[in-house]
Amino acid sequence: MSANATEHNTRENKCSWSAGSALSHVGTGQIKAMKPEGQRVVMAEDGAKSAVGGRAGSSDCPGRQIFRSSAHFRSLQDGLLSLRQMGILFDVVLVVEGRPIQAHRILLAAACDYFRGMFAGGLRETQQKEILIHGVSHMAMKKLLDYIYTAEIELDLDCVQEVLIAATMVQLESVIGFCCDFLYSWLDDSSILEVLQLADLFELQQLKDRVRSYILNNIQTLSRMDVYRKLPEEEIFRALSSDQLQVTSENEVYEAALYFHFSPEEVEADKVHLQVSLKDNLKMLEAVRFCLIERRVLQRLHSRLDQCPLKQSVSAALRYHEQELWQPVLQSPLTQPRSTLYCILGFGGMFSSTSLTDKKNLFQVFHPSWGEWRTLPSAQSPRMSNQGVAVLNNFVYLIGGDKNTNGFRAENCCWRYDPRHNSWASIQPLQQQHADHCVCVVGGHIYAIGGRDYSCELDSVERYDPSTNMWQFVSSLKREVYAHAGAVVDGKIYITCGRRGMAYLRETYCFDPAANHWAVCAEGPVERAWHGMAAVNGRIYVIGGSNHERGYRRDVNKVACFDPAANSWTLVAPLPSGHGEPGIAVLDCRIYVLGGRSHDKGRRMKYVHVYNTDADEWDGQ
Q1: Which range among 55-64, 70-79, 443-452, 601-610 has the greatest average pLDDT?
Q2: Between 20 and 30 A from 262 (CA), which of 100, 133, 312, 403?
Q3: Could you tell me the pTM of the whole model?
Q4: Long-range contact pairs involving 257-261 (C-beta distance under 8 Å, separation at least 24)
Q5: Structural domains in the chain, sorted by start
């Protein structure tokens, strides 16, 4: 199987008693402190007590113990609330809308900066018994005082705005956060305008970001509502320009842009008079990535437009469609898919079944957040194995490989996959047939390295230029090799191991495209072939494969890490199970090893193992 990445954002603490120190009767009227046995922190399950002990002589005060109680602050809060309920020890009265609210000055000062500055900042309110509070309602201030004493506040649609005003004035950040959470819980298509206005009014950036996220995730339904056209133009333009906009095609973005300027009825009845309307500024259409819209839609739109900036954009998009072969070198922000999600694609290979006609599930996509592989519809990938795989400008290239029909046969055919349209296209074939080779991308070019054509083993290297759709030979390998693997670090290609004749290799070579030269590097620690390689954070990991070390073909589970800067090898955590001829992909600094063949088990496998380079450990899926 082949794989690569392409783009398609409470721990429970259990505590128990332990003796940090102990007291023992020595004699009548005598108490002696026994020597503690090491420093500890202990906590009762109810949080009532804790103790810290230390070895005698370990501090300035030998045998010293510190006791803490997590229940103390709860008791203190309960005591203050009790004083309030009984009307005891009040020392300040807040007068709001002519109505008094009694309180304890020290608690208010401890609760928020507003009252701390008022009572401890040398202002005249420091000595006043009654303090007039302006700009907030009595109801809202009472709710804030209730919260200060109880750590609880009740919100509803009738009071939330007044509470937000009061909490903003007294700088009670936790209550502001609760108001934001409450407003977000009520956010829907009908309330979005009011919530956004409140976020702007009170400069609540977190709430505003959540409203923006709601627009991105609900654009298809929201754009058909009357409230959509009342939302601020800059917010809709921001959403329609975003890579995070949740749409299935750019046609939906085009429709959403029209819905901002015209009613859904006009758009769906095709009664949009663009010629007249373009005298006005239809700004939303500037956010549409016309290169991603279906050609038939563009042609129809183009025919309805007079000369204007919009028609120029549509014309440019049509030219882009006409140059399908060269699209990888014509990329711009307006040709990128609406996604920030990088996925792993798996395709090709062979099944354990002997049937050559079973082509189901040949093309699948995976992201860790999904927890499953999904089959992409309609896009039937070429039926190949042992092919080279590369990603260039978010296009996937399949280079050469085995045809898998009527026995094994090396091919020079090459294909390119476009994830934006879920489509395949043929590109210029290799000059030689290559199978069991490796493919790497450097400097906007694709390199096909070595392999075999089943009549001989190859030392040739071909380079593909997507701007000309041509292959050309570059500097050959020092010796022929097949069943090897390659990876790129700092603009240089590294290949390792493989086979020559019947011999399994440990060789490592480095190719510098700028110098067009191959150099010999330190040999790896293990002979292997039909393995995979991946580069993460400047290091190269050599994974899986097989060798003949014990007199028969067996899995190689040892994983070797090569540091190009030091020209040295180390062994890291081994594979849990064998992967010969696996697919390899790197996603979020984790290496995914997909399927392949286990020679120890004697069959092809479907399992996936994921290597965490930071933790040096494997996860199985």
Answers
A1: 443-452
A2: 312
A3: 0.77
A4: 257/282, 257/284, 257/285, 257/287, 257/288, 258/284, 258/285, 259/223, 259/224, 259/228, 259/229, 260/223, 260/228, 260/229, 260/233, 260/236, 260/284, 261/229
A5: 73-182 (3.30.710.10), 209-335 (1.25.40.420), 487-621 (2.120.10.80)
